[in-house]
Design goal:
By secondary structure, this protein is an alpha/beta fold. 44% of the residues lie in helices and 10% in strands. The longest helix is centred in the first third of the chain and has 19 residues.
């Protein structure tokens, strides 16, 4: 079997649940229970940044629903076992579990990719059911021939979009494949899909509008199941006292649930506890060029926002209306909205901030980009400014900061405290960790005459 009632997600979840660092998110099952078989809406798409627990939860759901395996002993130990809905759906359904990132070896085209999926689906169905159809029939017809029903769990639905061989025509065909497979099909008891990219940014109004999408901006139902909340991190610190909660908070906190609970990056917390020290774990899992790519072609729209955010000053903006737009990142709001969805920024109560120290380290590198204009030149002189500060060379220090201030701050904001704070952040971007930036900047704001 490739997708139908396979034991791969079950084995993976058993291994994860047995890990001492596992954080029990099984109450997600209770939250989803009302969607199973619900004709008014049973298709869910969870989009989150990478490494925020999407695959762990997808494996958990497959292990819970799959009828071919008895997983009661696993879930009896978890929080879901205390819920009224627990036994209603446990091991009751055929599960089609598809890791959409898996593809044939040396795959060089979309046709190879989708043919691999279709072939394996047909093989699975024919091995379990009596089906006699010629190859030209649509995939949905093979499922109808089974006279059975299925829970679909599609993990990383958008992984194919990152492949260089994909073009616009391929993307449309892929969306049509997903639509024909799932949308309005009576053999679908529930469809649960995960990814990073919002569906709405890549599909038309009719493609996958059967899915209710929950992302970092709009999720008010499932948000605490993707990421660690404060209580969970505190419990881990009590279990492993060698790690201070304050250190984990400084490095990996900064996201929020809809009701204001703190939300930590789960991968980074686990790695810090496992390695017994805090470091940049999440952003090291893949290229962080996405941050730069979000602003590269529209730097004039967001340059001031980047400086303000790096300075620790929240940016006020209304992003909700940009969530449902099929945009090309042409405006400030669209760029900032995408950066929230990718997890690079956090959005809470109409304000944007850089979530934590882990991401701040990456954002500070943006200032080194030549397309940051005059700020790039200031960064180049940052080490000289820091040395003048350490040498207590007041005259040289004052002249360099005055030059930067005159060059970068316009007349209307010349005496603005926020503008000065932003400028000083850039001037002292190479401040060592042993220095306290805030205290130095406050003292400079008092003493340096510009």
């Amino acid at each position: 079997m490739y997708y139908l009632n396979v034991d791969i997600p079950i084995q993976r979840f058993m291994k994860i649940a047995d890990n001492p660092l596992y954080v029990d998110k099984s109450l997600l099952i209770d939250q989803i229970a009302s969607m199973v078989g619900n004709e008014l809406g049973n298709d869910i798409c969870i989009t989150r940044p990478c490494r925020f627990g999407k695959t762990v939860n997808a494996n958990m759901l497959a292990a819970y629903y799959c009828k071919e395996y008895d997983t009661k002993t696993i879930f009896d130990q978890l929080k879901i076992s205390q819920c009224d809905s627990y036994l209603k759906h446990l091991n009751q359904y055929n599960v089609i579990y598809m890791n959409m990132a898996a593809m044939p070896r040396n795959c060089q085209s979309y046709n190879e990719y989708i043919s691999y999926i279709e072939k394996n689906l047909i093989l699975d169905l024919k091995s379990s059911y009596t089906i006699d159809l010629s190859p030209e029939y649509p995939m949905s017809e093979y499922f109808y021939q089974t006279n059975d029903s299925f829970v679909f769990i599609l993990d990383t639905w958008d992984s194919i979009f990152y492949k260089d061989f994909m073009n616009e025509k391929d993307e449309k065909e892929y969306l049509q494949f997903l639509r024909d497979l799932i949308k309005d099909q009576t053999y679908v008891i529930m469809a649960y899909m995960t990814g990073i990219l919002p569906i709405v940014k890549h599909s038309s109004v009719s493609d996958l509008n059967n899915f209710t999408e929950y992302n970092f901006i709009n999720d008010r139902r499932y948000n605490e199941y993707f990421g660690f909340i404060e209580e969970e991190v505190s419990e881990l610190c009590q279990k492993y006292p060698y790690m201070k909660y304050s250190d984990l908070e400084y490095w990996y906190d900064g996201y929020y649930t809809s009701d204001g609970k703190k939300l930590f990056n789960p991968r980074s917390v686990r790695n810090a506890l496992d390695n017994k020290y805090c470091d940049n774990y999440w952003t090291s899992t893949g290229p962080m060029s996405e941050i730069s790519d979000c602003i590269e072609d529209n730097i004039d729209n967001v340059r001031d926002d980047m400086i303000q955010l790096i300075s620790g000053i929240p940016v006020e903006v209304d992003l909700m209306e940009y969530l449902d737009k099929d945009d090309n990142l042409d405006t400030r709001e669209e760029i900032l909205s995408s950066m929230v969805i990718f997890g690079f920024l956090t959005y809470h109560e109409d304000y944007l901030t850089i979530p934590n120290h882990e991401l701040m380290l990456k954002f500070e590198k943006i200032l080194n980009r030549k397309d940051m204009g005059d700020y790039h030149e200031i960064v180049k002189k940052s080490k000289l400014i820091l040395k003048a500060t350490q040498d207590k060379d007041e005259e040289l220090l004052a002249s360099m900061i005055e030059e930067a201030h005159d060059k970068e701050v316009d007349l209307f904001h010349y005496n603005d405290e926020n503008s000065l704070a932003c400028l000083l952040t850039v001037c002292y971007i190479y401040m060592p960790e042993s220095f306290i930036k805030l205290d130095v900047k406050k003292q400079l704001e008092k003493d340096v005459v510009i």
